C-alpha cells in the first residue's frame, strides 16, 4: 500500500497558481533608536498582522528588540513585496506614533519611526543548490 499524500498547509492555491512564498523581513527604527518596549512590540505585531491580512498574506512569526523587528511573512504571488513592506512600515509608524506619543519622541526620530531601508530575504523550499542541481539535470528537448 503506498503512503497517502498529505497536503502541505504551507502550499497555497489560487485559481491558476500553486505557491509557497515566504519572506524574512527586518525593519530597524530610525537611527537605530531604542524605541520599543514589550507593549509596543505586542501592538506592532497586531498592526502588522492586520496589514498582512489586507494583502492576503499571513504573518507567520514576529519578534523584536528595542531597535528592530523581524517578520516571517507568507504572501501570495500577486503581492509586490515592496508594496507590502511600504504598507507594513507606513501603517505601523502612524499607529505607533499616535498611540505611544510619550515613548516615541517625534524630535528624536525626526518625524519618522522606521529607517528608510529594510532587509528582505526569501526563505522556504529547497536549498538553492538542490534547485540548481534539479534544473541542470533536466533533459533538453531533442
TrEMBL record:
One Pfam family of this protein, by short name? Y1_Tnp
Top-level taxon: Bacteria
User: Which SUPFAM superfamilies does the record match to this protein?
Assistant: Transposase IS200-like
Q: Which InterPro entries match?
A: Transposase_17, Transposase_17_sf
Q: Which residues form the Transposase IS200-like domain?
A: 18-138
Tell me which PANTHER family the record gives.
TRANSPOSASE FOR INSERTION SEQUENCE ELEMENT IS200 (PTHR33360)
Name the record gives this protein? IS200/IS605 family transposase
The source organism is Streptomyces formicae
The upper taxonomy is: Bacteria, Bacillati, Actinomycetota, Actinomycetes, Kitasatosporales
Amino acid at each position: 500500500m503506498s503512503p497517502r499524500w498529505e497536503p502541505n498547509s504551507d502550499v497555497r492555491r489560487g485559481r491558476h497558481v500553486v505557491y509557497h512564498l515566504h519572506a524574512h523581513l527586518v525593519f530597524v527604527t530610525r537611527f537605530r533608536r531604542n524605541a520599543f518596549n514589550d507593549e509596543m512590540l505586542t501592538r506592532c505585531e497586531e498592526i502588522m498582522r492586520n496589514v498582512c491580512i489586507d494583502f492576503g498574506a499571513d504573518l507567520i512569526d514576529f519578534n523584536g528588540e528595542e531597535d528592530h523587528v523581524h517578520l516571517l511573512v507568507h504572501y501570495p504571488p500577486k503581492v509586490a513585496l515592496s508594496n507590502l513592506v511600504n504598507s507594513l512600515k507606513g501603517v505601523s509608524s502612524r499607529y505607533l506614533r499616535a498611540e505611544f506619543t510619550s515613548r516615541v519622541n517625534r524630535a528624536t526620530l525626526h518625524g519618522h519611526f522606521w529607517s528608510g531601508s529594510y532587509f528582505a530575504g526569501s526563505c522556504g523550499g529547497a536549498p538553492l543548490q538542490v534547485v540548481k542541481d534539479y534544473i541542470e539535470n533536466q533533459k533538453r528537448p531533442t
